[in-house]
């Protein structure tokens, strides 16, 4: 007898997706224009190459990284594509509405497209916290609200705190992680076990996930440096070099501390494939600081340690004591390393200053930046979780969470009568 799966999305998902895309088409028709500017062919090629690097991370890297679940890998890849495709379009509009309006029109350039992809990454980070326990309708709505909130957060930081555009956007790791955590906490279900019976990793799915992690690891220097102006050659080289060094150190750190924290001294592949990215995350926030190579290596080492400990201890603690189920452990991969990078930025700048009053003002400025980001992300995440709990969104049944067959056709598994 055929199993009973989650409520059908036959009408709800196509209707929502069609309405959202129709709205985007109308807004693009009346509000969008391409920016007119002259640029040398070599410069244009360089910018497009970096845009493609970020695209590989968004659609390939994050998609395969989330494909570690044995019975949910197909959904992880497919829903990543769906959410990222929608989030990029919505981010172009929201970002342009606040920062790129010219003569009553939103100007689209190569830089704004790149920024839109980075805004979409914040949505993909949040998606990692609720992966497997939601359906595509939930994820589309989450991306809609999360990207809107993150663009609003960057506007607040840039308008009231005078945070540079690059620094405000690189808060995406902290914002996405805590937004996703609060949404997951608000979506908690009574009676659901801390660890679902289908929440398992298979050797094959783990291999695919490692491939996604390696692509992210290789392209992360482009992600951190893509918004640095091409005329600032020394600055761009510094960001790329420091990111590479930090990633290398976090990879080594992940291997070391995964084995050290294991009762049997064995390495956990999930720890490795995620914690090795923590160095790139941690270097995103302090990239505006004058960071020397040894500092970058130290940040990467500490980020790998913090991320591995987060996987081993923080994730189960949150599940058991707070009912906050973090599927991809985004707190360990993005949240904690992001805060580590924020602390490193503060310490680097303060250590380079001889003026005590200036150091205190800078510390207060950075604290306001972090508090604002955390406040907006936690508050909006809680609101999003409450909205997504509405039964009309047809959430999957508890026993059918983390199961591809709730959403996809598999002809070879069909029951023929």
Describe the structure.
- The mean pLDDT is 89.
- It contains 14 helices and three strands.
- It is mainly alpha-helical and 417 residues long.
- Helix 8 (203-225) runs antiparallel to helix 9 and helix 9 (233-260) packs across helix 12 (293-322).
- The chain has a single domain (49-390), classed as Ammonium transporter fold.
- A three-stranded mixed β-sheet has the order 1-3-2.
- The chain starts with 11 loop residues before the first helix and ends in a 29-residue tail after the last helix.
- It is found in: Membrane.
**Silhouette:** globular
Overall number of strands:
3
Helix percent reads 55-70%
Roughly how many Å apart are the termini?
Answer: 10 Å
Assigned CATH architecture: Orthogonal Bundle
Order of helices and strands, N to C? HEHHEEHHHHHHHHHHH
Radius of gyration from the alpha-carbon trace, in angstroms: 21 Å
Please summarize the sheet with the most strands.
3 strands, mixed
Strand content: under 5%
Specify the CATH class.
Answer: Mainly Alpha
> What is the typical, i.e. mean, pLDDT?
89
User: What's the name of the CATH homologous superfamily?
Assistant: Ammonium transporter AmtB like domains
- Structural domain count: 1
User: What class, by secondary structure content?
Assistant: mainly alpha
Low-confidence stretches: none
- The strand line-up of the biggest sheet is 1-3-2
Q: Count the helices. How many?
A: 14
Reported by name, the CATH topology is: Ammonium transporter fold
